[in-house]
What does this fold into?
Amino acid sequence: MCDINVIMRESVLPAGRQKERGTVHMSEKDYILAMYDIRGKQDYIYKSSKIKEIVGGSYIIRDCFDDCLFPSAEKVSEKGIFSYRRNSGQDEPGEFTPENFENRLNRGYIGEVVYDGGGNFFVLYRDAEIYREVNRRFYHELLDKSYSLRVLTTFIDGIHFDDYRRDRDRLYAEHHRREQRESMLHPVNTLPVVQTDYRTSLPLAELHHIKVSYESKKKYMKYEEMLRDHTNWEKQIQTDGNDLQDNLITRKGEESLLAVIYIDGNSMGARVERCLNGVDKSYSACVQALRQFSEEIQTHYIDKRIDDVDALLEKKANSGRRFVVYAGDEVTFICNARNAYDVAREYLSRLAEESPEGAPRTSCAGIAVFHSHAPFREAYRIAEECCESGKKLMKKEGITDASLIDFHYCQGAFGTSLEEIRKEEETEDSSRPWFIKYYDGSGQPEEREGLIKEKYISDSIVQKMKDVLNKAGHSNIKNLALSARKSAADFRSELERICAHQLEKQLDFTLGGLLDDEMQRKLIYDMVIVYDLWFDDEKQKAGKESA
It folds into this structure.
């Protein structure tokens, strides 16, 4: 962890600052702008396959500044760091202006949170000495509450309130240099004579139902703390052990399939830059724009979307869900496998519906269907790689704004990348990922009935093919999947056989000439993999009636 060996020095008044009649007078050059960057988030959260540990680890990251930085600052000075999220009210304006900042310093604050969002945490401190003293305490708190979470911090001096972007660019450049020199050392681990955690090699230090490492204990403690303090919209299934997942499955012993859904916003760095377009360069204007942007992301990517997910699940059988991570533009949650596609599709569709004119809100979603007792960490990794496949397609085709879904049915081969699994299965050339929303170059949504860029599948095509497959009958669907794996000729022969035996249904697998033979084969095979879960209308109806 960076700066954990900061030299302790007596706090003195730096040159250039004078106290007169209780008022602080200071030039801008004495202030410093600091950035805190949490490192290795995924590694920290997903060291374990235990859901409680994973959820506890994600909450530790979410709350690390509230739990560690602010209390540390309050030990340096009673008021500590002013936060526009925590401290603003009728008697304390939340807006950042140079005048408000200096007034806060005069009232005893030692710094102010400039911006908190999108993985960035910026603090404007009174001076470098205060910054170092706060950090010395902060890293001790972080070590105690998380054990191994790494936070890299960087600062610049000589700031100019009339040019935020200049200072931010200087800070990013300095931070990048520090990243190159960052130490990857972790706290001292084990001796040969102690028991160790087989997953992390950390020493087993506590008895928490079972023997666990100190880090695992802290994650369990955070999980239990959040159960006590959870809000209504964070309703979770609150049971012990494997029941956390068993309560989400359809029928124990018969169908124990779950899905982990990983959703991540697209081009967020570019969107942050766009929010500053046309804004004055001053701190006052830029900080206001960034804070407003951060609030919009929280509202539209997290708060409202969780409400949408819950509203949809209430209409479904097996409506439970468990959110694992939800921060910024990233969401990870577990639900019954039968509901996964509709839930991800609803999230992406509703996100697009609320987009402002000419500024689309888009994300990519990855779904991993897995058995409830399979390693969740591996299922999460597959879901993340599915999400990334959508982003890679956008980059390959130069698409700026689109929402896509990819999925994988995990039936073994854990520990291998999604790319390698698909090569082994000979399914790397598939119809996935599917477009849920696609925008033209002007930022306007295109409601496509056909292919995207004449070669990619849209959700409207998926829904049309779903109707055709339901007409064809369940037994015929399974035969189609087998023939699709064999060869194009076998697949074409099977299609012709089905159409000939059901002339009265007028089955059209080309969807009005939209799909050629190869597109039909790839799409139908991809849909049949999860047909029983997502596309069989009879099974979906039976599930609702039995619920």
In short: Confidence is low (pLDDT under 50) at residues 1-25, 232-244. Residues 283-313 form the longest helix (31 residues). Residues 374 and 412 are 9 Å apart (CA to CA).
